[in-house]
Each structure stands twice: as structure tokens, then as C-alpha cells.
Amino acid sequence: MKHDSQHPDSHTSDGINRRTLVAGAAGTGLGVAATLGAQFATEVRAQERAEEALPPLQTARVGFFGRRQAGVDTPPPAHASFIACDLNEELKAADIERLLRIITADAAQLTAGRAPVVDQEPELATIPAELTVTVGFGEKIFDLVNPAKKPGWLKPLTAFPQIDQLQEQWSHGDLLLQICSQDPLTLAHAQRMLLKDVRSFVTVRWVQSGFRNAYGSSQQGTTQRNLFGQVDGTINPTSQDETMDQFVWGSHEDLEPWEEGGTSLVIRRIHMNLDTWDQADRPAREDAVGRTLDTGAPLTGESEDDVADLSATTELGFPVIAPYAHIRRATAQNPVEHILRRPYNYDLPVSNASGFSDHGQTSGGVSNSGLIFCSYQADPLKQFVPVQKRLAELDMLNTWTVPIGSAVFALPAGCSESGFIGESLFS
Ligand code: HEM
User: Fold this and answer.
1) Residue 137: beta bridge partners?
2) Which atom in ligand 1 lies closest to the alpha carbon of residue 291?
3) Residue 274 CB: number of other CB atoms within 10 A?
4) pLDDT at residue 232 greater than cutoff 50
5) Domain boundaries in the chain?
6) Which residues approach ligand 1 with their CB closer than 6 A?
7) What are the tens digits of pLDDT across the range 164-181?
8) Cα separation of 80 and 213, whole Å?
9) How far apart are CA 406 and CA 277, in angstroms?
């Protein structure tokens, strides 16, 4: 399974493929229809030419409407903000509906590069830069609106005492807004617009901001690197075969989506200790994961896409990929244990940066860095938890990493232009 490299242009904001429109209009038949069709085609082509002349991010829209929400299997843009909110105490089901309608209306406008009506800085809404807004629900939304629809897995993950040092400030939440864009200014504006519009319903619980390689810094589809310098995201479900449908959207016979077009998101904030990582030499770093640092190839192969041979041994009979190597421990042990990893790096400023952060310490030293580890799957209990359990028991990477936040959300299906995100809870 290779990282998904689908281009966002295939996801049109208006749900209409412009080239299909041109072809359709040009072939409308005789007389007036033909003339109108030709005129229409010319206009569409002229608009296309005008758009082609613009800087690419000004027209890079990811469609908001559809049977699934964008921001899951669409290519991850360079910047992301994950915002967990808590619902205000007095809210009723009707308030939640109003809240979701507002979020839907704002998100539809902003992702199309248009300013919502009450936008006081409408100029900041004009560069969509692949903006996506993805909505997730915590338990309380179901409890208030439709308890019968609450997925059984929607609760805090079981503890992983060997590794967890969870902090409340990065955990849980009633409502998630995941906002991604190639342009940090577009993202900041969308975040402020959405939060302004929902502030009478919710209180922000935490915000996690993350980044990946900048737009244009590598070929489309190149797997990103994390702050350990590792190629991170090689083995993943993809839309190029059936794996994305099976494991993220739940079409696999042993899985079931909580609702058609819905999925789940587990967010683990994982501190990465770069000070102690500095002490490990290159062979030790590669041995810890089971892949090389330069190309990301498995230690038994030549290139990133080579399949890791977990049975290969050295001349002395030791496994080439160690028993404690991250990829050996993380690899699926049954037909459904596949997750979509869509991580973002974080790197917070450290005041008075000095000294050294020891093993297991999550502060001090000269950096405060890590991964916003986002895992999408149809069923966290069947897919994410067994992998995390194995890694908690044994994984050499634990020497340098500490989970400090944890949250689980149900992502509802997408909606049509006349609907709103989460509408199925109200029917
Ligand atoms: C800071 C924490 C972590 C780092 C730095 C990290 C890094 C990596 C790297 C470099 C790879 C190899 C390349 C690839 O396939 O992407 C990998 C693979 C993988 N990781 Fe992680 N990872 C972390 C946490 C996790 C967690 C928490 C999970 C799940 C609970 C996980 C699940 C996986 C899986 C399923 C694979 C693919 C395994 C296979 O080869 O089949 N990782 N990770």
C-alpha cells in the first residue's frame, strides 16, 4: 500500500467536472441548443484559461460536498489545525443542529474560496489553497441528539500504561474541527471565522497545529518526513486500489462503518525527544524502525516500495528486521488491522531553550517537538487499538517517544448542498 497521491483537482468544489461540462454542452444537439452549448463551452474554456493563468493555490479547491467528508482520503496539505471543543452546558439537540448548519455553511463557502456572509476580512477567504474542513463528534453529541446512533467504540481509548503520559490539555473533546490548507494564512482565517461563528455554542478545549513539507517542495505523492528525519507514511491504504474503501470507509466484510460514508479518527499527540534521538547513531536509528533513513526502504530491500521481508536473517541467523523494530511490531496481524496514518509534525517554540531533555522527559532541552498522529479507520477497536497495544508492549521507538494526548472522534458522512454535516443524527 502506497501513500495516496490523488490530486485535489479531481475533487471539484461544485461537484461538477468542468471538462465534462464542456463536452456535454458541446454535444447538446441541433439549433438553439447547439449554439447555446457552443457559447457555454467557449465561456467555460475562457474561465478555465483565466484560472490557469492564476497562481496555483488560488484555484486549488477541494470539494466540500459529497457522500464522504474531505480531509481524510484527500492529499494532506502542508498545514493543519485540529481544534477540539466542548459543548456549552445548556445546549439541546436543536442547538446542535443550528451549530452544525453554521459550520457546514461556513465550511462550504471558505473551501470554495468565498467569504461567508459575516466575514469581516473577506479578502482572506479568496485563496482556497486546498482548504478542507472536517467535522468529528465526541460522545456528548450523540448523547444529546441520538444515543442509539453512538458507535460502541466512541469512548476514550483504553490506557497504555507502559508508554502513556497523557495530559488533559491535549485529550478528549465533544466536537472536532480539522482544518487543513496549503496556505497558513487561509487556514488561520478559516479557523477564526469558524470559531467566531460557533463561540456561543462551544468552548475551545485544545488546538493542535501541525505542518508537513511545504507545497511544491517535493513531487506530488512523495511520502513526508517527520522530525526524526524518517520517511513516515509509506505503508498506508490508498484510493488507487480497494484498501481505502475497505479499511477507512469500512467496506471490508469484517468491518462496518458506523454510518455509510462515515469513519473514525484517533488523534494521539506524541512527544518526540530530539535530544536523546541525537545520541543514537544512524544504524541504531534504522534498526529501531526497520527501514533506512535516506530512502525509507526496508532493511531487507532497495527502495521505499519494496515489501519488508520479516523472515530474512543475517549470516549469524539474527533477524535483519529486529524483533523490536517499529515496522515489525506495527504490521497488521490480521486482515483488518490497517489504519490510514495522516500525521502532522509539531515544533513549538521553547523559551529559555537550553540543557538536555532526558529519556521519558517531555519538556526541557532545546525543542518541543513531536507528531500529531492521526489515524483514520472504520473501527478503532478492531484496527487501531491492537496495533497500539503491541507497540506499547514492545517498540524500540518508545525509547524516544511519549504519547501526551489522546482523543477519539466519529467522523460523520459528507452532505449535499441542501444538507448539513451530521444530519443523519436528526432523522
Ligand atoms: C512518534 C511516533 C511514531 C513515529 C515517529 C513513527 C514512525 C514510523 C515510520 C518511520 C514508519 C515506517 C514507514 C511507514 O510505513 O510509514 C512507521 C510505520 C508504521 N507505523 Fe509508526 N510511528 C509512530 C507512531 C505510530 C503509532 C502510534 C502507530 C499506531 C498505533 C503506528 C503505526 C504504524 C504502522 C501501522 C506502520 C506501518 C507498518 C508496516 O510496515 O506494515 N506508528 N511509523
Assistant:
1) 175, 410
2) 12
3) 19
4) yes
5) 8-58, 151-168+223-411
6) 226, 228, 230-235, 268, 270, 272, 289, 291, 296, 308, 326-327, 330-331, 339, 371, 373, 384, 387-388, 391, 397, 401
7) 999 999 999 999 999 999
8) 12
9) 23
